[in-house]
Amino acid sequence: MSTGVTTLEAIASFAPERKVPIEDLVDRLGLRRTKLRLFQRVHGLKEIRFDPELSLFDVVLPAARRVLADEDTASRVRHVLYAHTTQAVTPAHIDPAREIRDRLGLHRAEAFGLSQQNCASGMAAVDVAGELLRAEGGPGDCALVVTGEQAFSPKIQLIEDVAIMGDAGAACLVTLDGAGDAVRSYATRTLGEFSAAMLLDEERALRFSKVYAPELAAVMRQAVAEAGLGFADIDLIVPHNVNLQSWRQTISELGIPREQVFLENVERFSHCFASDVFLNHTTLREAGRLVPGLHYLFATVGLGATFAAMVITHGASVTAQGAQRDAGREAA
Amino acid sequence: MENTAVVESVETALTEVLEREVSGLTPDVRLFEDLHLDSTSVMEMLMSLEDSMDVAIDPETLDMDDFMTVGTLTAYLQRLLGEGK
């Protein structure tokens, strides 16, 4: 059993080009006037990426292809983990994880899905990937975590009063001790009393709204503490894009400056199933806002309800070979 | 605006948000405990009041203490109306 550090060697994301303003979804989602205003003015949503003309795999595969750009990388992949939120994203005779593996030509890898933590499944898959590599991986082996779903029905596009889901996909290449972002800690807490997820009765829904910010704040504090850090050491929080109001409450609970949370993608993409933190990481990296050696905190919540947070250190390779590759990537 | 008119606007907004008739509110009625609002339905009520009372609400500066009772809510709305003058 290895003691290697879980490292995010590469992260990429994809969103359909088709932009749909929130107001165009009123009929599809059955939103009355004040609900639309709530999403726009209070929750801070403007538009989503949403293209029913694309297939599931059109959304999922582009990011994965980007992180597997060279043959050497593809040959190192031992596991493919498809983290999704909706249980049945394909007809029963199609196993989406195997389909993704086969379409990517990763025939040596085992493939499986991971979905029970809903929008926290992406981060959970990174943790599982690290554990698998520590348990049975060889030097240089990696695991590919992919996310990506479509809001194919109004029933899964609208989380009443909370979120409007958009389409996006992401891929995260996980290895041990190589080049990339080192995972310093991962904290997670599942509260099973909310397992009815989108079908919570009124009393439990009210209770969930009350515990949401304190529980998320507690998990975020735990992740920061387990990384041996304080919030002042976190350069930026990379959140899920559920809505601004939930973040106002969580920021208030944490007592941190609002500028410490990257919220610019809420109005651009809204909440994209299990992909948000990877999508936001991509945006920040492409804008040159991730600084090598600094610490970042992923934070998300999955219905059901799982609260999860992970501290990463950008470009913090723990091997000389990894450091060289990091230097090359930053220069590029 | 007269306080009775503000209360009437609140009743209309709550009728829309709660999808049931709300009337006869008095200042001591509690929004959360008595009317069973939650933080989201309070926000939705404010969106309705923005239109009917021609006030502008800033989601960034809301203080939940203003939404404890019908009395604190009407005082908050009167302050907004004052700022608009």
Automatic annotation (TrEMBL), chain A:
Residues making up the signal peptide according to the UniProt record: none
BP GO annotations: secondary metabolite biosynthetic process
Parts forming coiled coils: none
Entries under InterPro entries matching the protein: ACP_syn_III_C, Thiolase-like
All residue ranges annotated as the Beta-ketoacyl-[acyl-carrier-protein] synthase III C-terminal domain in the record: 225-313
Organism phylogeny: Bacteria, Bacillati, Actinomycetota, Actinomycetes, Kitasatosporales
Superkingdom field: Bacteria
Alphabetically ordered keywords of this record: Acyltransferase, Transferase
GO molecular function list: acyltransferase activity, transferring groups other than amino-acyl groups
Name by which UniProt lists this protein: 3-oxoacyl-(ACP) synthase III
The UniProt record lists the keyword GTP-binding: no
Database matches in Pfam families: ACP_syn_III_C
Organism of provenance: Streptomyces viridochromogenes (strain DSM 40736 / JCM 4977 / BCRC 1201 / Tue 494)
Automatic annotation (TrEMBL), chain B:
Carrier domain sequence ranges: 4-81
Entries under InterPro entries matching the protein: ACP-like_sf (IPR036736), PP-bd_ACP (IPR009081)
Signal peptide residue numbers: none
Superkingdom of origin: Bacteria
Protein name: Acyl carrier protein
